[in-house]
Amino acid sequence: MITKDYCIAMAKYAAWQNQSHYRCAGEMTDADRRADRGAFFKSIHATMNHILWADTFWMFRLAGTPAPAAGTSPVLVHDDFEALRTARFALDKTMEDWASAIDPQWLSGDYTWHSAILKRDVTKPKWQLITHMFNHAVHHRGQVHAMLTQADTKPDDTDFMLMQL
Predict the structure, then answer these.
(1) Could you list the pLDDT tens digit for every one of the 165 residues in the chain?
(2) What is the C-alpha to C-alpha distance for residues 78 and 53, in angstroms, rounded to an integer?
(3) CA 21 to CA 146: how far, in whole Å?
(4) CA Rg value for the chain
(5) Partners of residue 96 on adjacent β-strands
């Protein structure tokens, strides 16, 4: 099982990496951010949107924050980059505050939700879902990092051990 400290550290890591990626993406043209670079969601812009969309859904489920707007695409929450950046940084703050406020006993419970993908209710331990949420974002941020590097920007290292806690 994970601990409250794990949640705090992973929320800080996510914010640290997002700061780096959004800094680099902000130096690019909109066309360069939206260029098909061969990743699963094609572009930097779409992949960043997907990470925001997924994190927003998991925080809705786990922390009771607002869900993504009805009909929002998992690859286009915000068409405008500045709106995307603003929403990302706000959600990072929400995630850090949530992690800091977690009751360690809460982590040992289960959570049930209706999965649109599986078309049924699913129950899993909360600690597994939190681990999934953070791992999912790390996976897709790795794709963003690779696309930013290929675009000749200089994102920060991704090594967790280099982060200042």
Answers:
(1) 899 999 999 999 999 999 999 999 999 999 999 999 999 999 999 999 999 999 999 999 999 999 888 777 788 889 999 999 999 999 999 999 999 999 999 999 999 999 888 999 999 999 999 999 999 999 999 999 999 999 999 998 888 878 776
(2) 10
(3) 10
(4) 16
(5) none
Domains of the chain: 4-156 (1.20.120.450)
In the block, tokens 């550290």 appear at 9
Give the helix/strand (H/E) hosting 6. helix 4-26
Nearest to 77 by CA among 64, 65, 66, 68: 68
How far is Cα 62 from Cα 133, in angstroms, rounded to an integer? 10
Please tell me whether residue 120 adopts helix, strand or coil conformation. Answer: strand
List strand residue ranges (DSSP E) for the chain, in order.
110-115, 120-125
| Angle at 85 (CA atoms; ends 81, 90), nearest 5 degrees | 150
Burial class (CB in 10 A: 0-12, 13-18, 19+), 6: middle
What are the Cα distances from residue 130, in Å, to 24, 33, 80, 81, 133?
27, 29, 29, 27, 5
